[in-house]
Structure formats: C-alpha cells, structure tokens
Amino acid sequence: MTNYIPTIGIEVHVELKTNTKIFSPAKNGYGSGANTLTNVIDLGYPGTLPTLNEEVVNQAIKAALVLNCKIRKEMHFDRKNYFYPDNAKNYQITQNRTPIGYDGYVEIEVDGNKKKIEIEEIHIEEDTCKSAHRKDVTLLDFNRAGVPLIEIVTKPCISSPEEAKKYIEKLRETLFYADISDCKIEEGSMRCDANISLRKNESDPFGTKVEIKNIGSISNVKLSLEKEAQRQKELLDNNETFKAQTRRFDDKLNDTVLMRVKETGNDYRYFPEPDIPYLYLTDEMIETVKEKIPMTATERKKEYMQRGISEKNSEKILLNRAISDYLNEFLDTNIDFVIASNLLLGDISFYLNKNFKKLEETHLTKEKMIELVEKLSDKTLTSKNVKDMIEDLLETDKKIEEIIKEKNISNITDDSYLEEIIKQVLKNNQESVTDYKNGHDRAFKYLMGQVMKASSGSANPSLASKMLEETLKLDD
C-alpha cells in the first residue's frame, strides 16, 4: 500500500459566554424549554433590525489575543445568503472579508516535538436555530438562533489526526481558561468540522478535499480523520477517483458516512450587512480587554512547575478548573505546593467524585488547607490520617486540632521508639529479612506492613520506610 501525506484543516465554532445574544436582547442560555429564549430579531421578523452586542466584540478580541492573532481594527459584517429551515432570515450575519483576527497560532506538542498550528482567521457570526428530526417531521428550536459565535479556521497545516486532536485539546483549554466559552462539546458550545486530503509527495498539489461534519467529541476528531484517511488510501491505491464531498462521523459505525457530493462551489452571494455600521477598534479598547484576561492555562502550568509540581500533575490539575482556581488562591503563600496538589488530586478529588460534590461546596477554607499542608509537611499528620479525617475536613467547620482529638490520632515522632519497633519486627521476621537480601522486593513491603501493624498505624510511613531501609542495610 502506498504511503500518502495527509493535509488537514479544521474549523471550530465556539459559543461565546455573554448574557445576551449577538444582535438581540434575548438571553444567551442553555437547557431552557424550546423557543423560550427568543426575540422577534432571532425569529427573523420582517422590519426588525440587529443591534451589535459590545460584549461579543470584547470576547472576540480576547480570543484573538490568546490565540496570538493580529487584530483587524476596521471591519464590517456580511450577509451570507442561503435558504435552510434553521435560518429564518434566509441569510446569516457573519464576517467574510474582514475577520476580526488573523495570522495566529496555537502551539502543541506531539511525541516531544512542538509545532505551531497556524490560524488563518477568527470571525464573528450568529448561530442558527437547532433542528430536531422526528421521522418525517423537523422541529425548530430558536433558543440557539442568534447565539454569538466565533469561527476559528486553521490553515491546511495539520499533518496527522493526532496533531488535530492535540490542537483541539489545546484550543479548548485556552478558550476555557480565558473565560471566552464553557467549551462543552456535549452541549454544542464547541463544534468541530475537519477536512482532509491525501497526496503522495510534498511537491504534489493537494488531493481531493473531503469535509467531515458533526464531530461530537475530541477523541472522535482523531478517529474520524483516521477512518477517512484509510478510506481515501484504499480508493487511491485502486486508482479510483472521487469528488469533493461532505461526510459526517457516525458514532455507532465508528466511520464517516456520505452526506452530499459537492458538484459546484457554494455561492453565498456575500455582501456587506447594510443594517450594521462599520466597526472601528482603538488601541485603548484592545488594551482594556487584554488587562482583563485571566491567568492562562500555560501560565498556570508554568507557576505550578516552578513550585515543584510535576508536569504530569500540573496537566492533571488543568483538567479541573475548580481545582486549579482553588490552588491559585495559595500562590501568595509559602505552602508546600507538592503536598497541596497531591491532596487535591488524591484524597480530596476521590471524596468529591464519590459524593458528587463540588470543591466550592465544601468547608475546606484557605486557612484549613494551609494548616493541613503544614501538618503533613512536618509529619504531625500522615496520609492515612487524612483519609480518616477527610469527611470532617470537607463537611464540617471543625478545626483540625479538634478533629485530631476526636479521632484520637497520635503519630510516632520519636525516632528512637520507631527504631525499637523496626528492630523487633526484623527479629521476628528473619525469613523475610533473608528474602529481602536475596532481592525479593515483596519482602520489604511485608516488613513495612509489620512495622505499621506493630505501631498500630501511628508510624509515619515515609519515615518508617526510610528507617527500615537504613536498618536493613546496616545488617548486611
């Protein structure tokens, strides 16, 4: 089978976090009853006029900034003319000739190699209403009509399905932490279309482009492109030709399915929107938006790693915005961030997930967290103690000392007493000592278990492990 070079481009539609819609005062929301968040402007009533929402422009400026784009200071909106049931006006207001952002990039890393995925443009537009197909009937929900969007279009510079997946992950993380969108793909607030073509050599012209629509998850971005690349390879290997076409990804089939063949290019007859004046951005407007951008995911990761948290754990923290925001409350303190992050990713997350709770719903105040980390740091408490205390720590206003007394927690801090326990354990378990010296790692775990048992669980595990290892070496 011939090896082919894939060329991939991606278009992402992102719903913006605003209180109202882009051209009407109707609420921008999700989950309400069908057609309850509407306005005559959204419904396309004749004679209604759009009024541009200033916050939409601010959010688009913010997106252009965090995605390293140049910002166009003079722009206008365009009418994209087409007839479809979800488009009541028979045109969509968008930006065709003057997108607000252009020539940007998102940096990704694949197999240790960094690459800039180039962004061709970011433009503002309105969403259409939502169609629901029921047998031979199509139902329309205009709650989504007029919801503000930005469309982010890459250049055809993505070289593999894995790169495409990494790009979407990084894009989602960037926009989410900038408070531009909630980026909930399952709710449709972030939607992805991809296109792919194959060619034999870099010097060859691009192959026939196939667009894949309605990709419902980040993992399916990679899977759909892999499936489509395989389909095109088989056709090309058999010397078969195919027309440019639009396909969709079918979750049940785990494959792409033909929607329509593109016989001719789409003629949307774009022309400037006559009901919206030209928009002029000033340096002051851009600077005001820039000053309000929250700490980005990249900046957070850098902060965490500078404080000793591993890269892997830093990335785990960024997967949970609530944990990241909570940890950021301690950036002005001198607590041990490694211990704090281990607590948040370990026992605290386990308890929250088990009990379907959010971190902000607990009683884990900043002061209580600082004291807890300090007691773990100076060995006053052990990780086992935290497991015993976790419910009281998160569900009550009790002070840590109060919980320690109630739980009757007392840990061995006397090295000489712990040394005696270890010597006695070794004396009573000579066979395991011999196994350890013969290279059996399990013997050490067994001996550690006996030390903890002999101390009634009150020995500090890390200290006991260190002392046990040192004592075994002295016996050699």
Strand order of the largest sheet: 2-6-7-10-1-11-12-13-14
What is the gyration radius calculated from CA atoms? 29 Å
How many strands appear in the DSSP assignment? 16
Query: What is the arithmetic mean of pLDDT?
Result: 92
Biggest beta sheet attributes? 9 strands, mixed
Number of helical elements: 15
**Fraction of residues in helix:** 25-40%
Q: Categorize the overall geometry.
A: elongated
User: Kindly, what is the distance between the CA atoms of the first and last residues, rounded to a whole number of angstroms?
Assistant: 61 Å
Report the sheet-strand fraction: 15-25%
Which structural class should the secondary elements be placed in?
A: alpha+beta
Which segments are poorly predicted (pLDDT under 50) over 5 or more consecutive residues? none
Topology record:
Layout: E1 5-15, H1 54-66, E2 70-71, E3 74-75, E4 78-81, E5 91-94, E6 101-110, E7 113-126, E8 130-134, E9 137-141, E10 148-154, H2 161-177, E11 190-199, E12 210-215, H3 218-237, E13 245-250, E14 255-261, E15 271-272, E16 279-280, H4 283-291, H5 297-306, H6 311-318, H7 321-328, H8 337-354, H9 366-377, H10 383-395, H11 400-406, H12 415-428, H13 430-437, H14 441-454, H15 461-474
Parallel strand pairs: 12-13
Antiparallel strand pairs: 1-10, 1-11, 2-6, 3-16, 4-5, 4-15, 6-7, 7-10, 8-9, 11-12, 13-14
